[in-house]
Amino acid sequence: MTSLDSVLDKDGVRLTVEDAVATVTLTNPAKRNAQSPALWRALAEAGRALPGSVRVVVLRGEGKSFSAGLDRQAFAPEGFDGEPSFLDMARGSETELDATIAEYQEAFTWWRRNDIVSIAAVQGHAIGAGFQLALACDLRIVAEDVQFAMRETSLGLVPDLTGTHPLVNLVGYARALEICATGRFVHAEEAERTGLANLVVAADQLDAAGRDLAAALLAAPRDAVVETKALLSGAVSRTYEEQRTAERAAQGRRLRDLAGLAD
Questions:
Q1: Number of other residues whose CB lies within 10 A of the CB of residue 171
Q2: In a 3-state reduction of DSSP, which class is residue 224?
Q3: E-assigned strands of the chain?
Q4: Nearest one of 23, 12, 11, 83 to 49, comparing CA atoms
Q5: Are strands 13-18 and 5-10 parallel, antiparallel or unpaired?
Q6: For 139-169, how does the pLDDT look when each residue is reduced to its tens digit (9 = 90+)?
Q7: How far is Cα 180 from Cα 185, in angstroms, rounded to an integer?
Q8: How many CB atoms lie within 10 A of CB 209?
Q9: How far apart are CA 164 and CA 157, in angstroms?
Q10: Residue 27: which of 36, 19, 18 has the closest Cα?
Q11: pTM over 0.85, yes/no
């Protein structure tokens, strides 16, 4: 593709593709891009719809906020039209509840696939599910007005949309626990200092910074980036010796490929 093509546009999610870069946009600024099961299904569909040519995915939100988190309608007795309310979910069996949450999590899991690098461009509020969606990405560029917060614990719940693992990996157990248990805001300076953010820019420079980072990521050969990402993402669960072995295997594949000797 050489032009900007709209691949998907539904339920508050728009996916566009231009050459090797895809952009996923949250498109409900009137509600600060609040999230719902329909939006989560659309996000999961966006991941499945990515053309094989895509190497970088930029995630952004329209308006002043990236995402203010879960739409509070989820807590109302009637819930969302055509969706089980949280009260209905609680009344179901443990197996049914687990399956429902697993389905919701699918919107947050594909961003770390080895064949792409994902960038969250975050401005304003990124609260609860919004924070977890930003954490689902590989990299985060944030505006100076960003406000991260994990509010689930304050509501008597826990973060369950895959955000706890990357949060602990980025900031450590103690700080992750404090952020989640207090529900406090994390602003731009702290986000950059603690590793939550790769870069802080002025709000009006956020989209340009995302484009610049995407271009920089595209400068290296795709297979080398894929192998490097796999090495780094697996390093946390490997021992030092296992990581050395993985490095040797990955480099062997790259050298054989460069020499035209790939299997």
A1: 20
A2: helix
A3: 5-10, 13-18, 21-26, 56-61, 117-122, 125-127, 139-143, 147-149, 186-187, 199-201
A4: 23
A5: antiparallel
A6: 999 999 999 999 999 989 999 999 999 999 9
A7: 10
A8: 19
A9: 13
A10: 36
A11: yes
